[in-house]
Amino acid sequence: MKPLNLLILLGFLVGVVWAVTLSESSVRSIQSTYYETVSPFVRAGSKLEAKAGAFLKEVEYSKDLEARLHQTELQFGRLAAIEGQLRELERENNELNAALDFKRRTNFEVTAARVIKRQPSTWWKSVIIDRGAKSGIAAQVPVLASGGLAGKVDRVTAGEDEASVILLTDESCQVSVQVEGTPEAGIVSGQRGQIGGSPLLRLRYLSKDAPIRPGMRVVTTGRGGLFHAKILVGTIESFEPGAFDGEAWVKPSVDFQNLNIVFVTSQPDSMGKTEEEGE
Length: 279
What we know:
- By secondary structure, this protein is of the alpha+beta class.
- 40% of the residues lie in helices and 26% in strands.
- It contains three helices and twelve strands; from the N terminus they run ααββββββββββββα.
């Protein structure tokens, strides 16, 4: 046997003999010292184990919370989409009710049409509607909307059910009008280069000292044979007297910013008959 192994064996035997020959009090003293030595490490290990367990539970709770938050976000998105659809349906319903009410109140024979095309560059000039030759729509007839006069039909393509409408807010659409409650009459038209906001109409050829005040109604005169008389155009916003005549700015009675439904009147001959029958 090697010397090193022999020394280890002898040391082990001596330790065994020493442990066997120790008194009970000595053994207890050794045990007490051992427990006191290892006790802090045991307590620290227990705390570390408890913290590790709490951390794992927190991680699991965080994952569960994240999943619940994701589900909540999805539900919120669906509810927001449903709310948007309901608001759009409510808006369309209110719009249709207003249109039906206007159609019931008008004395003209009209055909309802929906605006289907509108370009930002010509927003205040023209629109395309979903009624045309197939629906008996002709060019150069008035177009009304909830509130009053909206414009006139410009072009109708043969064989198609679409038509182009020149809006009253276009400077090329000129209408003979009168300020209600006064003898003042003139020509109203749109303005060139209107961008955004609510457009105003320009009323020219009034008397320079015309007794015109804000809020007065402006209606068509019926002159020229295109438009019926007494169609509401708008209300006076302001009046500007000049050296020889006066001008006024008119707020349209039609909401041209949100123009979606219009009413195309019958052709001029039919309009005349309708007016005579009404009288």
